[in-house]
Amino acid sequence: MVALFLFSFDSVATLDTCVRIFKASTRCSTVQALEAASLHPARMLGIEEEQGTLNYGSRADFVMLDDDLNVLATYLAGEKVYSRTAEVEKDKEQFRGLSTAGEKRLHNGNRKATVGVHQ
């Protein structure tokens, strides 16, 4: 008898989070963890000539990471499509309208929250 179980936990883990967890769990090197998320899957799919490396002639899809493997920027075909700095600036801009004391009461239904902005 064969039983098949499908589970749905409705959670999402980004690839950078998976790489950090893999590295910590296996105690492998940063290079090995990154290759496990890029080069090895590309080899398994037979597309390592186009993806999974930064060799001449391959697509220039890559991420820039900090020392803790957090994404700083994402490039697709050599063009920057995401920057953590830009996201932080966008978040700051969104809250610039707060009072000069840097706090404002926000009402969300029956709940109240205080948001503080530190510049």
UniProtKB/TrEMBL annotation:
Residues 99-119 are annotated as: Disordered. The keyword Nucleotide-binding does not apply. The keyword tRNA-binding does not apply. It comes from Stichopus japonicus. GO terms for molecular function: N-acetylglucosamine-6-phosphate deacetylase activity. Residues 24-80 form the Amidohydrolase-related domain. It comes from the Eukaryota. Keywords: Hydrolase. Gene3D superfamilies: Urease, subunit C, domain 1. The lineage of its organism: Eukaryota, Metazoa, Echinodermata, Eleutherozoa, Echinozoa. It holds the Pfam family Amidohydro_1. GO terms for biological process: N-acetylglucosamine catabolic process. SUPFAM superfamilies: Composite domain of metallo-dependent hydrolases. This is Putative N-acetylglucosamine-6-phosphate deacetylase.
